[in-house]
Amino acid sequence: MRLITHNMLKCHVKNCTDPDKQFPLRFKDVQLEQIEADRNDEFLVRMLPRIDWAALLKTAKELNIELPDKVPESPADDGEFLSTLHTVILETHVKDGSMVCDGCGHEYKITNGIPNMLLAEHEI
Amino acid sequence: MSRPEHIAPPELFYGETEAKKYTGNSRIAAIQAEMTLRAVELLNLEEDGPYYLLDIGCGSGLSGEILDEDGHIWAGMDIAPSMLDIAAEKDVEGDLFLQDIGQGMGFRPGTFDGAISVSVLQWLCNADKAENKPRYRLQQFFSTLFMSLQRGARAVFQFYPENDSQVDMIMGIAMKCGFTGGLVVDYPNSKKARKFYLCLFAGQTAPGQKQELPRGLDSIDQRNDSVAYTDARIQNQRRGKKTRKPVKDTASWILHKKELSRKRGKEGIPLDSKYTGRKRKPRF
Lengths: 124, 284
Ligand SMILES: C[S@@+](CC[C@H](N)C(=O)[O-])C[C@H]1O[C@@H](n2cnc3c(N)ncnc32)[C@H](O)[C@@H]1O
Ligand SMILES: [Zn+2]
Known about the structure:
Chain A: InterPro entries: Trm112, Trm112-like. The complex is a heterodimer. By secondary structure, chain A is an alpha+beta fold. Chain A has one domain: N-terminal domain of TfIIb (Single Sheet), CATH 2.20.25. Chain A has helices at about 5, 40-45, 55-60, 80-90; strands at about 25-35, 90-100, 105-110, 115. By secondary structure, chain B is α/β, with parallel strands linked by helices. Helix content of chain B is about 40%, strand content about 20%. In chain B, a hairpin with an 8-residue loop joins strand 6 and strand 7 (about 195-200). In chain B, helix 4 (about 25-45) crosses helix 5 (about 60-70) and helix 8 (about 135-150) packs across helix 9 (about 165-175). The model of chain B is unreliable at about 220-260 and about 260-275 (pLDDT under 50). The interface of A and B includes residues 47 and 92 of A. The structure holds S-adenosylmethionine (SAM) and zinc ion (ZN).
């Protein structure tokens, strides 16, 4: 799972609805892998408004990944920023570990890059 | 003819053996590719992609590979671990999730530019476990899907409806969850080539702009070798009886094939290891 998708993901346990806690899911004991991907600046710029920067920053900190505190004024013209963004959200994959919800405590295990999002009967 | 979804729950039906058989069957792969291309076409995306898409019931990645060819960024979810393992092994580009779509999904509002689903939705109508209530599950699914899409985005489902009342149930629930749209039927006059695409709109692209339901393809296609996946299974057992002609000749398919063979011919890239040349490194 790439970090772009993690940034879109909240806990989906039924009664877990506190917006400040169900997102972003906190990584635990994760192993990362960098996999090269083609960079497309238009895509990055188009996705920027959908990215929750504060959440991405928080996640990046947890993972010891460097990221500017703020999105620059005109990101489309900022090659260095786009390059960093690309590396972080589209080339950084989480291979193993888990994601924990601070709202309800549910732990989503990640195996072979695939998070297990299945819920128990009492969580749906 | 028994329908796969009547035999066992999906995660058991698509166990290791079936997942391998399914993915390795070039006839199935061709049919899934063709339907995926049509589903993407029905998404009505603007030219200047790539887009961020969701593949619902992505399985072993036969549909996702088509999204990869088009350069889209995607996430996929499936309930069958054996299918996902194959997708991961094949190095598809998409982010994979082990997920039961009947439990809904937790993507933030407006995450995706569109969603496709190829040969999956009929599974959700099945009460394969005592605790599975199809109506409730469809409601969970469509309401959370609606949220996860950009306003005006589409979700296109190729599926094998069992009967009219199943279609009515699905449509009714989707509409209740905010979708508009309807059923697009390709080749309605050919029993074998006929394909059903539920084409849903998550609101309007712009205020006051009504989305038009696309027209189904006509039955000018005389070939009737494009059989449904459910009978493909049966066909397989009688292999050799019929040789399969190339899949349908829509412009997009030909283009796609040309591009594929060009890519493969030129760079000599083997079919399933397109990305093995990429640099990978663990990160600490
Ligand atoms: C015929 S396969 C299609 C896979 C892929 N879309 C393709 O075109 O090859 C149907 C898939 O639907 C998945 N499926 C069925 N019910 C599901 C559910 N409730 N949640 C997630 N996936 C499901 C199955 O596990 C299986 O992989
Ligand atoms: Zn939670």
